[in-house]
């Protein structure tokens, strides 16, 4: 449980940082050099729930990055749809994609698929410990 909570916090903070950076850089399209990024408190538990990807990370070990990324992106889009729909029903959804021609019910954008592939692979890196191909040094028994 402690590991899950730590992963939840890592994913939540990472998601917030990514979103703030993404929205700040997106302001360049409007030629707004203030680079003001934004997010919502609602997004922390949504991004934090990426901690639930960990069993899938283990299951997909050894698969090609594109296969893993597409799998993670599908899960992320599903979670975004579910949480977006739930929050929109309560009129508190912090995002609305109705300006995009690629939106689905205003709560997901299919053109963000590459972003979610990369985000899934980043969360995978956060959730899986680094692997070492080296064998531990053995003590020398020769005297």
Number of helices: 5
Percentage of residues in helical conformation: 40-55%
How many strand units? Answer: 2
Which value, in Å, is the CA radius of gyration?
19 Å
Structural class: mainly alpha
Look at the structure and give the mean pLDDT.
Answer: 92
The description of the largest β-sheet is: 2 strands, antiparallel
In percent, how much strand structure appears in the residues?
under 5%
Q: Unreliable stretches, pLDDT < 50, 5 or more residues?
A: 132-138
Question: So what's the overall shape?
Answer: globular
What topology, given as strand order, has the largest sheet?
A: 1-2
Distance between the first and last residues' Cα: 47 Å
Secondary-structure element string: HHHHEEH
Précis, in short:
The protein is 54% helix and 3% strand. The chain is mostly helical and 143 residues long.
Written account of the structure:
With 143 residues, this protein is mostly helical. Helix content is 54%, strand content 3%. It contains 5 helices and 2 strands, in the order ααααββα. The protein has helices at 2-26, 43-48, 54-59, 65-89, 113-127; strands spanning 103-104, 108-109. Strands 1-2 form a two-stranded antiparallel sheet. A hairpin with a 3-residue loop joins strand 1 and strand 2 (108-109). Helix 1 packs antiparallel against helix 5 and helix 4 crosses helix 5 (113-127). The longest helix is centred in the first third of the chain and has 25 residues, at 2-26.
């Amino acid at each position: 449980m402690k590991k899950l909570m730590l992963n939840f916090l890592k994913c939540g903070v990472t998601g917030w940082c990514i979103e703030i950076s993404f929205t700040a850089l997106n302001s360049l399209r409007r030629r707004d050099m203030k680079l003001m990024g934004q997010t919502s408190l609602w997004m922390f538990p949504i991004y934090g729930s990426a901690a639930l990807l960990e069993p899938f990370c283990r299951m997909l070990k050894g698969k090609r990055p594109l296969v893993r990324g597409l799998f993670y992106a599908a899960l992320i889009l599903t979670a975004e749809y579910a949480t977006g729909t739930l929050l929109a029903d309560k009129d508190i959804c912090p995002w609305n994609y109705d300006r995009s021609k690629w939106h689905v019910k205003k709560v997901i954008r299919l053109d963000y698929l590459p972003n979610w592939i990369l985000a899934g692979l980043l969360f995978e890196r956060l959730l899986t410990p680094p692997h070492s191909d080296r064998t531990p040094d053995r003590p020398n028994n020769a005297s």
